[in-house]
Amino acid sequence: MARKIVVTSGKGGVGKTTICANLGVYLSRLGFRVAMLDVDIGLNNLDVVMGLEKQVVFDITDVVSGKCRVRQALVQDVNFPSLYLLPSSHSYASSKITGEHIKNITDIIDHSFDYILLDCPAGVEAGFHRAVYPANEAIIVVTPHLSSLRDADKVLSIISSYHIESKYLVINRMRGDLLLSGEMINIESIVKAMNIPLIGVIPEDDSVGKMSSNGRILTDSESARAFTLLSENIHNGSKKIFDCTYKYRGIMGYFKRTIKKRV
Ligand SMILES: Nc1ncnc2c1ncn2[C@@H]1O[C@H](COP(=O)(O)OP(=O)(O)OP(=O)(O)O)[C@@H](O)[C@H]1O
Ligand SMILES: [Mg+2]
């Protein structure tokens, strides 16, 4: 049986799709069979982030309307053969797709995958319900900003009425220089406010966006190290958190911090 993990946040643009895509890649690199479901219907971009948009033949609406089988709609990643994507669609009236539809899809592929990752849309309306309903675990993505934390708190209270057995916190876009200078909310305060286990911290890293432009991951970047730790933590329950401040420590770090502030 697959672990079914929804990646959600409440607030838009905090990095749900980015984290879903990278988790898919890094879990498949660990040797797992991973299916990513783009449940952000109407605004699909997981296929674009993965660089797979040209391979899309069928999408989630074709599956729901019975035009094709789930297997036919799954797109295999060209770089990671154990990674598959079920694309969303731009066109279908999203209200016609329900949480039950998505659950039927996860039930069909349950035994063929180790992980099913559900990329949730922003907000807490029907689209949220569709993505959360079939999941049994949730990753709550926040950024170190009050508006993101407030929306995530709302999500946590709503999610308590679903069959979610485990909830994990991922803090995205953390800046080590601002953490050291005390200009960003620190990790301890965020964890305390959210009151769920921290499973990953992803630094602000320009190379994250490069995945969107070529569908490839950069294995030597800071975020690559953070995503490696996150996928290992998800898989084996370890608690290794990426230290965003390490390169800003010491005398060289001081200069890096000063230069970054001037940019
Ligand atoms: N750690 C990061 N460092 C730098 N840029 C990032 C990081 N995480 C995400 N981004 C950028 O932020 C933007 C929004 O990310 P993404 O689309 O993953 O957010 P989202 O939560 O899925 O948005 P939506 O709510 O619209 O679905 C993208 O341009 C992405 O490349
Ligand atoms: Mg998204």
Task: Describe the overall structure.
Strand 6 (137-142), helix 7 and strand 7 (166-174) form a beta-alpha-beta unit. The protein has helices spanning 16-29, 46-49, 60-64, 70-73, 99-109, 126-132, 146-159, 176-180, 187-194, 207-214, 222-236, 250-262; strands at residues 3-8, 34-38, 75-76, 83-86, 115-119, 137-142, 166-174, 198-203. Strands 3-4-2-5-1-6-7-8 form an 8-stranded mixed β-sheet, sandwiched between helices. The longest helix is centred in the last third of the chain and has 15 residues, at 222-236. With 263 residues, it is of the alpha/beta class. It has a single domain (3-262), classed as P-loop containing nucleotide triphosphate hydrolases (Rossmann fold). The termini are far apart. It binds adenosine-5'-triphosphate and magnesium ion (MG). Residues 16-17, 40, 119 line the site of magnesium ion.
Strand content: 15-25%
Strand order within the widest sheet? 3-4-2-5-1-6-7-8
Radius of gyration: 18 Å
Instruction: Give every kind of bound small molecule, once each.
Output: adenosine-5'-triphosphate, magnesium ion
Total helical elements: 12
> What does the average pLDDT come to?
91
